[in-house]
Amino acid sequence: MVESGRKLERLESGTRDAMNEQATPTPHAVSVRGVSKTYKGGFQALKSIDLDIRRGEIFALLGPNGAGKTTLISIICGIVKPSGGTVTADGHDVLRGYRITRSKIGLVPQELSTDAFETVWASVRFSRGLYGRPRNDKHIEKVLRDLSLWDKKDAKIMTLSGGMKRRVLIAKALAHEPSILFLDEPTAGVDVELRHDMWRMVRRLRESGVTVILTTHYIDEAEEMADRVGVITRGELILVEDKHVLMRKLGKKQLVISLQRPMQVLPEGLDGHALELAGDGATLTYTFDAQSDDTGITVLLRKLGDLGVDFKDLHTLESSLEDIFVSLVREAP
Questions:
Q1: Where in this chain does the record put each ABC transporter domain (predicted)?
Q2: Which domains does the chain have, with CATH numbers?
Q3: Average pLDDT over residues 299-304
Q4: Of 6, 242, 310, 329, which is most buried with the most CB atoms under 10 A?
């Protein structure tokens, strides 16, 4: 125990010394320039990534399995060394200023790796000390209460459910009060209630000034929370855009027309319109650009009337972020 205490003191001392280094002023919490990663076997996981993440935003990084999301996060956090390029976090180079950048960053990994025989309280408190932070039991209590872990503070982690263990990982990442928080698939395999609890927690963190970067397979998670969205596939960052701007630029609207009488084929007079006839012949779907001054809807409805095509109902549908994501990944070279 004495030796463990000495090790912790040395870690705290080293981190405090590193904190005295001067950071380069920057409006961005994270800046990535020309970052690539090629593994020994020749596999290129990342290809010249450029990315700026603004202070105080929630940034969602989307991509299919194997796209390079976790590799990029690991490089920014200083866990994996890039083959090329530079990364700064809060103005500090993540390689040259490793101690200071790690003190600024909290990471919640995908894997449920925890100190199985430790209590929740001891594990979270120790995590704070690792980053040179002075003891602050009030902060640890607040984190545990925010994550609905307070009644489990004296329980050994090995006795907790999977969802509770993931909450402990988040508590450990927040113990040292980081200004940048990475959540790598934070809600994978957890129940809906926990997902919504995490969403609320992430919003509170953003309101307090914390920059949050999350990777997720759940597109609704990004649509619900993110300020900006990045799409990565095959190691390349193919798009970074404000979520609402992205949906406005790439989202499509559809007019769905329910017909009074099913038809086998489209009448010749409708050939020039972006129309699809459903398999049962009972529905017409017209795709249009909602931002255009002329959507073509008025002309289409007039033609339907001229051709004697009667309809009983019509309504519009709008592309979701998931639709946009799928189309981007499919179209990527």
A1: 30-259
A2: 2-108+178-247 (3.40.50.300), 251-331 (3.30.70)
A3: 83
A4: 329
